[in-house]
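Hey L., structure's done. Input below.
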Amino acid sequence: MKKLIILLLFMPQYLIAQNYIAKGDSCFKAKDYVCAGTNYDRYLKTDDSNGIAYLSALSWSLASDKAKALEAIRTYVKFNYSNGVFVFSKRLLKDKNFDFLESDPQWKTIIAGVQAKEQEIMQKQQKKVDSVLAIQHRLERDAMLTKLNFNHDNAEAAYQKIKHYNGYPAIREKYLSLQFQMTDSTHTAFLVVMPPDYNPKKSYAVLFFLHGAVSSNTGYLDMAEPGWDTGGWNRFYTKYAGEVIMVYPHGNKDYNWMYPDDGFFMVPAMLKQVKQIIHIDDDRVFITGHSNGATGSFSYLMKQPSPFAGFYGFNTRPGVETGGTYIRNILNRSYFNVSTDQDYYYPPGANDSLAVLMKKIGADYQDHRYHGFPHWFPKFDASEPAHKLLFEDLANRKRDPFHSTIYWECDDVKYGRCDWLQITALDTTVKRAAWQKNINFEIKKWIVLGKKDSSITRDTLLHGFTYRKSSGAIKAAYKNNIFTVLTSDIKSFSILLSPEMVDLRKPVTVMVNGRIYCKQKVSYNKEFLLTGFRNTADRSALWVNHIEVLL
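Output:
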């Protein structure tokens, strides 16, 4: 007995507290609400958990104990405030289990106090939102597409005016919160971190950081504030960015960069919005991310690389969640991966197989492996050298939208565009060309999380990529005004033209699958030029006309 007393005295207090929750949950499930409320209240003597306080209030309400229910609700209110939660009156009012309190003066006083506090908080927050919106509206009055006027310009003059535009507004703020329209009725916000001593006459590189855990976020922002974006796991982006402008979008389970496809438009659209007011180097725009954000970065590489110069990711799962992963599409750009050997999101063996595959196809691909670290590698100081390497790589990269060869494959013509080539219709009813093959590899080991986040390796049998739909592919090249194109399962496509690619004074020849499709003079087309420019705000990749090919 003496030994038992000694053990109890030294038992960690948190184990006893956790036992109260377990007992409370068990009693609640058995509908013994007095027992549940009693045990939840015992736990609340050790921790100011607003979640457990709510369960206590619910239990006493279901037990029809008005006095204890009201006391638990007061505790819930108190703990909400101590945990930084200030808006919650609707939850209390919507819960039918509290209806029996609605005529009680004490209930009315509690609700009135909560609503008054909410009103005060919302008024303060609205003032902050109004303040940042005023900055956004001031800058947008000087937006590029607002200021440029082409009414009296011919096509060549419009082209030159766009190329040499340099009328960006001065920006004194270090942090810009910009609202972004998601749909006609919803908006969110994203954060832009400006470089020191920003000069609107000088162009800057920009790096988008895509966060992970998109499925756990259900909200939308009225404004984006520094904090989580610029500190914590992202502290080394802040440390090494220097002259690089950082942009932090916020995704949620409905609108993000991975799945579903509804939000995939966000990053290119945010880029267009930023380009209106900030002097961005169009050929030095990059994407990085962690976890789901790294998968998003990889997905833009596979589906929509045209606006970007290079792609980066920490702890990536390389694959497109909304269609096929046509890995040869990387040949138009590059990917810089940071992986760890204890990552449950994607195992080291799979990363090794991918690296072998990338080398085989001649891809510009890097995998930097760090040993002894789990999926949340950016949390550790040991990730600092990887961030430094990222920015060193970024400093030496520049997009060439006029590169002479393109391989592009897609299963949805919404993502049929890569630089100067655009697939406009597929025909997957015919036999595909021999050179168009799905590439894959097997994954035989996967890591799962055990107790206390330990890594456990288990046997599995998976494929690296999933091919959900039929696709079409094009291999194209140009030299001396001659375009040579091979197609597979393609019904139609377009070749976009720039005076930096071809001599518009001479005929342009297009050869498709070994035959001359056309040989014709092509001139500047003002309508085509301006439509493309207004869709992207890209002053470098300007397309003055196009040739449509129907097969």
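The first strand starts at residue 175 and ends at 181. The chain has 15 helices and 19 strands.

-- N.
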